[in-house]
Amino acid sequence: MSEAAKIVAVVRGAPSAVVQDLFRELIDRWSPSTRIAGVVEEGHGLADRACSAGRLRSIRNGSLHPIFQDLGPGSEACHLDGAGAVSASETIQRDIAAGCDLVILSKFGKLEAARAGLVPAFIAAMEAKAPLLTTVSPAFYTAWAQFASPLFVSLSAEIASIETWWSDVRRGQPARRESAVSAMSRGF
């Protein structure tokens, strides 16, 4: 299958905050005609914190799911709150089951590399054969490749690149692939 025909796309080549801004811009553009499920990441807004993780905001209803455990000003440790990611994942799975045209998941990162966090939402999107747009923390790209190969295509962090992918997907070019679960179970 050609790279352009894959319905799972990962945006690479820019910091996470830049990609989250791209996702928000695309959600604003596409929402009037597209049912989008998923979450985008927002910062926590706290000064003097080593950890940049903040909250996951539901695209469907705006609900917030904190993924940051505040260890206080000056702390050099970063502690993700997995409970917030689990809550977000449950919301996303319900939204996918209710029907969607596209799933946008903020990131495949530390929690997902450990087979936690948003992994159930990633699996739900793939099982539903819903187009999926995400980004991957560079440190966890190997885990992502083990999880999703050969189901994905990499895109540059540019609106035009993502728009071209989405246009191809909307035209119905992607063929329905082998079960995502069986493909993922081979290496993850």
Characterise this structure.
The chain has 188 residues and is an alpha/beta fold. The chain is 38% helix and 19% strand. It has seven helices and seven strands. The protein has helices at 16-30, 82-98, 110-113, 119-127, 141-148, 159-170, 180-185; strands at residues 8-12, 36-42, 55-58, 64-66, 102-108, 132-136, 152-156. The protein has a seven-stranded mixed β-sheet, with helices on both faces. Helix 2 runs parallel beside helix 4. The radius of gyration is 16 Å and the shape is globular.
Helix-strand string: EHEEEHEHHEHEHH
How many beta-strand runs?
A: 7
Radius of gyration equals 16 Å
Structural class: alpha/beta
Total count of helical runs of at least 4 residues = 7
Unreliable runs: 174-188
What is shown here, in short?
It contains 7 helices and 7 strands. By secondary structure, the chain is α/β, with parallel strands linked by helices.
Outline the fold blueprint:
Elements (H helix, E strand, L loop, with lengths): L7 E5 L3 H15 L5 E7 L12 E4 L5 E3 L15 H17 L3 E7 L1 H4 L5 H9 L4 E5 L4 H8 L3 E5 L2 H12 L9 H6 L3
Parallel strand pairs: 1-6, 1-7, 2-5, 5-6
Antiparallel strand pairs: 2-3, 3-4
Helix pairs in contact: 2-4
List keywords for this structure.
about 190 residues; alpha/beta; disordered C terminus; 7 helices; seven-stranded mixed sheet; globular; about 40% helix
